[in-house]
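Weekly modeling sync, notes
Attendees: S.R. (lead), two postdocs, one rotation student

Agenda item 3: backlog of single-chain predictions. S.R. asked that every request posted to the team notebook include the full sequence so nobody has to chase files. The rotation student volunteered to paste the first one in as an example of the format we agreed on. Action items at the bottom.

Example entry:
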Amino acid sequence: MRRARPIAALLCMLVGCSSATRSPAAGSSDPGGLALKDGELRLESALHQLDLIEANIHSLSGAVGDPVAKCVKREPEVIARGLAFRLVIGKRGMQEKAAEMAYYRLLQERRPDELIPVVYLRKYYHEGLLGCVLDSVGVSQKDAMAESEVRILVGSNFEAETGDGLVMIDFMTHWCVPCKRMAPDLEKLARSYKGTLRVGRIDVDRNMSIAERFGVDVFPTLIMLKHGKEVGRVEKLLGYPELSRWVESELRGPGSPSGEAPRGGEQRKAESGG
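Predicted structure, as returned to the notebook:
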């Protein structure tokens, strides 16, 4: 177990997570230099960026010639980054699916200072994969990614971010595929209604008490708050047009995309296997 810290420090040097860490004070009980309050927010910010990258990759998986599969199997830089990620998670020969499962278990169990280097290495791998795929289809990386407008919610900032005005909260998990797919549309919504609506995402696996308070066990669950009180709920993936209609209906008065919040969630906690 003592080998984890030197490896984590090396990963930070390799993949550029110095912005997410700082030197600890002498004798600090926080060896990663991340207080819980600060560390959770930084961890979830990195995970949100990773979700956006993975959503972009998924959106291109059906492109002509299957560029995602070609990049994963044939591009040396992508292969090397993927191998580095699997080595940190488990063993050299670990298959992609097994590495994914091990990674998501870590996200549920470890501290931010232990997880941030691992998340940055996974992000490093997926950035390489996205770059390769975008080059294959002739799309600029600048066109694919924009600065985030979604609020990252954790226990320490939840009340301050959601207590006033109109707020849409995405209760999600990072293993939930529909949650990842919806992330870019939530970003678009946040940009479109900036100044009128706050859009936030909260990771249920690391904020169980807040999820239990709202009775959430389906992912994604979208909850609309007005001045801290729930005014609408949807338990499934929504695209941007549906999200926008919901917001417009709330700006005019109570309601949801169809006038009554539809039920029937995408993924339940019990189905995760974790």
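Discussion: group reviewed the output briefly. The first helix runs from residue 4 to 15.
Action items: rotation student to repeat for the remaining queue; S.R. to check formatting next week.
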